[in-house]
Structures are given as structure tokens and as C-alpha cells.
Write a structure and sequence with these properties.
The complex is a heterotrimer. Chain A is built from 13 helices and 16 strands. Chain A is α/β, with parallel strands linked by helices. Chain A has two domains: 244 residues, Thiamin diphosphate (ThDP)-binding fold, Pyr/PP domains (Rossmann fold); 135 residues, Rossmann fold (3-Layer(aba) Sandwich). In chain A, the strands form three sheets. Chain A has a seven-stranded mixed sheet with strand order 3-2-4-5-7-6-13, with helices on both faces. A six-stranded mixed sheet of chain A has the order 10-12-11-14-15-16, with helices on both faces. In chain A, helix 13 links the parallel strand 15 and strand 16. Chain A starts with a strand and ends in a 5-residue tail after the last strand. Chain B has a single domain, classed as Rossmann fold. Chain B contains eleven helices and ten strands. Chain B is globular. The termini of chain B are close together. Chain C is mainly beta. Chain C has a single domain, classed as Alpha-Beta Plaits (2-Layer Sandwich). Chain C is built from two helices and four strands, in the order βαββαβ. The chains are: A alpha/beta, B alpha/beta, C mainly beta. Strand 9 of chain A pairs parallel with strand 2 of chain B.
Amino acid sequence: MGKRIGLEASLAVSEAVKMARADAVAAYPITPQTHIVEELSQMVADGDLDADFMVVESEHTAMSACCGASAVGARTFTATGGPGLALMHEMLYIASGLRLPIVMAIVNRAYSSPISIWGDHSDVMAQRDAGWIQFFAETGQEVFDLTIQAFKIAEDKRVLLPAAVNLDGFTLSHVIEPFDMPDQEEIDAFLPAYEPQVILDPDKPVTMGAVGFPEIYTEIKKQQNEALLGAYEVILEVWEGFEKAFGRAYHPVESYRTDDAEILISIAGSTACTARVAVDNMRDQGKKVGLVRTRLWRPYPFEETRAAVKGAKAVAVMDRCLSFGGPGGPICSELRSALYPLPEKPVVNSYIVGLGGRDITLQDFYTVVEDAERVLSEGPPDEYQYKMIGVRE
Amino acid sequence: MTEQTGRAKFLPRHLPSRELFAEGHRGCQGCGEALALRQLLEVAGPDTIVCSCTGCVEIISSPYPETAWRVPWIHVAFENAAAVAAGVEAGIKILRKKGRYPADRRINVIALAGDGGTADIGFQALSGALERWHDFTYICTDNEAYMNTGIQRSSSTPYGASTTTSPAGKISIGQQTQKKDMPMIVAAHDIPYVATCCPSYPLDLIKKARRAFETIGPTYLHVFCPCPVGWRHPSDMSVEIGRLAVKAGVFPLFEIADGKLKLNRKMDKRKPVVEYLETQGRFSHLKPEDVEEIQRRVDENYQRLVHRAECDAGGIDRSRH
Amino acid sequence: MADEMPTWREYPMAAIILEPGSTAKYKTGDWRSRRPVLDSSKCLKSKCARCWIYCPDAARRVDEDGYFEVDLSHCKGCGICARECPPGAITMVEEGE
């Protein structure tokens, strides 16, 4: 069995890519993703990772080159974040449209302007609909595990879609965490070599990326959507296998002290660590508070989400992203949509926190829970849509 | 006419039984790009992967459920033919190293883009792929405007040409800037082989394409492709206009191999550019003084090439071809 | 028409086209208003092949006698072959004549 070590979360990504025996990497450096690509470069330089690392001239080219490498059957990886992810935008849709199982680490970073190198989820939320499988990690261990799993899920014949693992910039990416490092043999047993289905092969010439006239476009998009929806079962299956092999359980939505909870905090990413402490403290004060954490973002886990909030009176959703002029945070919007058909559902409040690397403190969790309590007793004011927490008025 | 199509090489029995760029493609009548592709693929052969950018070629060759391609082909987007080709090349290279691809099989990885996909939107990806020294051939089929979207000007549109976004008007002669010199910009990356060619000179094109494909490392072919619709000339004139462009020195045929420039057709007496310009509606509004200005620029550019060729150790090929 | 078309399940993944060169099935000959007619007696004995090498539509085939016959189901009638033929063995004739 593997060994227990301390490892920076970024390096855990690189280790996962190495142990997944990735063939091709194309990446462009951007803060806070740099540690991942630096480590991968060193691994290639030392001969520890037998991959072709294309150190390209932009993220746009990174994703384009990933498409090319994946289309000839290479196991392909890239990493980016923030503006780099934005520059990939068009390519993300094409990677999923071409059904190329590329795996990407997104080290979440705010969008400009003003320019911010620090973390929030604006980057990935703007790519929410790109047709990728999307996970949010909380810990370094999870980053590693999800990266390994992402290859297996993405490359599954029933799926063949790209997958992204989100980790918060700095607050997770640059944090050294305790970490169970598996042996290579264990990873090899769990993640076999990639067997591509259709590739650019001169012996069997295919045309990829043809013109789709209006008569077929809808059908091809339906097909793609079905593949992403169908990925759900594969994800659960892979997680079951992972738990058997490595002893760590994974679920689309993680619940903490939710059993008798009246108010639930909903959050994604590494902030859940702080949230758990806040929940414990509030529980000590006798408040019936729990936590639900979004791990699987696409395909969206409707049933698990409904089950996770069942019985609660209010859900306080804390988004690290603001939909300008819209209904608040994206995670909140989707949660509301998921609950809308239910005859009985909790009040769902949207709170915007942690934009551009602003610390999310224990007090922030107390504040949103107090606000949720107030809404429950007084009802929301008419103009109530969402609140930005910690903003100086 | 002295140029040859090379009888010996075109004995019917030597012709391929199957076109790799198939008939039935949706190119316009007299399409210079389709013609260039046919000739280029004859040279490339079946062990080829084409990474195409968005544009005429992509549209005319891949109307689902049909494809004109008999080699593996991928279209990803407009601005990244070179980046996709880079990924394909790198992917094959590493799979070969790992024993998952035939070790002795050389694949011509081709990035294929029009002038807009090369000189404008795909410029960065091209430069990056050249600098990283991928083993691929970048082919720019240059018809001097965005033809697929309706004849809008690109940075490869020549001075004085009227397009839908550089229209000739009461106070404008049309395109007011000079054609971006892509072959020289590419050559500045110091890659092993850069050449200009035109399907009106198939032997020259074939020779250059063969060298480009055989060369290890990045190579670049800039192919002059008359466009009857965009240039407003009769469809049967596509080959003749390419010829006139070469003979007038508007599009000189040259190659830069290992840094040495060789003019493939040294013409002591060039045709006046007006003979080229007057064949096309896009230049029909030009006044004599505009033509004079174009002639002056063409002369200047041609002399620069002659000078460079002479400096590059007598690299002028005076043999006929 | 729409009823006869495949359902989303029936399309190949990502609309990847598996049959190379399938545009050959599409008869671009319909586009033509003039067709090239070859007078074999004028064709060069050596069969210079200009009509073949300069055809943008791959619409020239070698017949049993080594002449380049036109594939009228794909020839779009651009007229390049007629213009480029050194002995003038090809003439363009209006369709319907």
C-alpha cells in the first residue's frame, strides 16, 4: 500500500497526472496554476513522466493542441485557471463536441477587471455549459483522487467527454496537506491504458469536426447531452470501484451534520473545510445547522441535491461568483431549479462570498445562518434576491 | 508558353487511381484552393493527417454526412490549425515512443488554413507551432480575402483590391494597406523550409510540397489560389491568372531552404502588372496612377528578392521548370 | 423528409464521418451550364495531362486508350481544361445543345 506524506495540492495534481501515465500535456503558465505545470515539466525533464509536454504560447493553443493529441489517441492533460480558462472558452465546447476525453485541472481564479490573481469561481461558472464533466475538490487528497478518476470517467466508452477538476486558487492549490499516496501498481490496476474508439488513423481515415447543417445539429447536441447525463451512472460506478480499491468514498453531494438540520449551508470547494468548523461551533451553540457541499457540478446531481436538503427549512447557498444583474450565485440558481418541482421545499437564499480571493471567515458562515434565521422568521423583503457578504457599504 | 506540366511524370499509367481530395466537393467552379489541394495531396499520399482551419476548404469538403477527404481530417476552429496540428504531431510522437504507434511510419501532419486563418486570426498559433519546432507542414492557401464569409478583406488582401469590407468608393481605392508578407515572416522563425507556390505551376508545387513533407521539422508552403468569385474573373481563368501573377512578379515563386533564398523563376523581363490586374473585377476601378503605384511596389519587392537570392550564395535557379 | 432522417441515436458519435471521400456520391455535374467536349483526334499523342492536373474537381478519368475523358457527373463546367489544353482539343459547349 501507498504512503502518507505531506504534499502541496498543486503537486498532487501533477503526481496524479504522472501516475495516470498521461501521454501528452499542453499548457501555458498562469497564476495560480503554475506549480502544476512546473512540476510536470520537471517530471518530464527528469524522465519520471514519459509524456510530450507542449509548452505553448497561449491557453487557446493549449486546449487546441490537447484536441489534436487526444484525437490521435493520446491520454491528454492540461491545467489553467481564471483568464486562461476564459481564453480556452471556444475550445472547451469543441473538445466536448468532438468527444475528446481530455482532463483539465482548473485552479480557480477571479476574472479581470480589476485584475485579480486570487481565487473565486467566476472562471468555471462562465464555462458551466461547455459540456464538460466538472468536479469541485475540497482537499489535496480529493484533487489527486478526482484527477485519477477523471481520466477513467472521461475515457469510458459510454462517456467520451472531457472532464475538469476545480481546485481553489491559493487556498487549496498552494496548501500543503496530509496525503495518502498510492502505489503506481494500485493506480495502474484502477486506471488501465486508454483505448480510444475513433482516432485520426491513415489506415481508417475519418473526418472529425464536419459541418453540421441545421438538419443534424440538434440531434448531435442531443447525443452529446445524453452522453453527459449518462456519465452520471459511470461516475457513481467509478467512485464505487475507487472506494473498494482505495477506501475513500465519493458522492456527488457531500453532507455534514445534516440529519436534523433546519438550516443548511451550501458551498463548493475548499471553503467547506472552514464551513465544517463553523457548523460545529454553531451546533455547540445549539443551532441545528448542517453543510451540503457540491462535488459534482456537471452532470448536475438533481436527486442527490434534493435528498441532501430534504427536511431543511432554509438553505443558505454561498457562491464565490456573481451573475451580474441576475439572480445571484450560479450554485444557488441551480439548487433553486432542482428544488422548484417539489411541493415542499426549503427557502433558498443566495449569498455572494469570497470574490477575488477575499477570505471567507467563520463569521461569514455565522452571518449567513443568522440571515437565514431572520428570513425564516420575518420572510424576505420584497427586493430580496441575494446578498453580498462582507462588502463595505 | 514555356512552362511545362512535365509530360514524363504524367503518363496516364502513373496517375493515381483515387483522388485523396475527392470529387463532389462543394468548391465553386474554377476554385483555386480545391485545385491546389488536389495537387498537394497527390504528393502527400495516404499517410497524411490534415488539420484544417475554418474557411472555404473546411466548408466545401465536409458537409455532413459527406466528406471529400480520403485521409484523416480534423477541423477544430478557425484560429488554431497550427495548434491542432502541433497536438496531432506531438501525440503521434509520444505514442510512437511508447510503442503504441508504428515506429517506422512517417505521417505528414498538415495544418491547412486560408490567408485569414494564417495571416490574421491564426497568426499566433502558427508562430508558436513553428517556434516549438513541431514536425509538420503548414499550408496557407491564399485567396487574398475571407471568401467563405463573403469576400471580406484580410491582411493578405493586396493594395487596391476591392472587397466587401475594403470596398472601392468615391474616396477609397479599396484595400489601402499592403499585403502582409507571410512567407518572410514565417522564414524569420528560421525553420528549415519555406516556399511559395501556385497550382498554375504544378511541377514546381509538387517539388516543393515533396520537400516540405520530407523535411523533418516545421515547413511552410504559401500557395497562391485564384478565386473566381472573390476576384471576379471567369472560372476558366484561374490557372491563367496564377500564371500571370507569377510572370508579373506579383507572386514570385521562391523557396528558402536552410536560410537560403532561391528564386525559382528569375525573370529578367516581367509582364507589366496591369496585365494581371485587368483580368480581375476586384481591380477594375483602379486608375492608371494606382496601377503605377502597384507596379512600383512589385518592382521594389521583386528586386529585393533578386538581391537576397544573389546574396544567398547564387541561389538562383535558371533552369526551366 | 425530416421523418426519414436518422434519430440522434443513429448518428455516429460527434458526427464523425466514417466513409472517406463520400462527396463522390454528390453529383456536382448538376451545377454545370457548359460542358467540355474532347476531340481525341486533336489530343497530343503524349497525353500532356494538363486537363487532368488543372481540374479543380477531379473530374478527369483516363479511358482505355489513355485519353482523359471527362466525368460529367462531377465536372462543374469551369472551363479551365478547355482554356489550358495546348492543342485546343477541348471545347466548351452549352448544355442542352
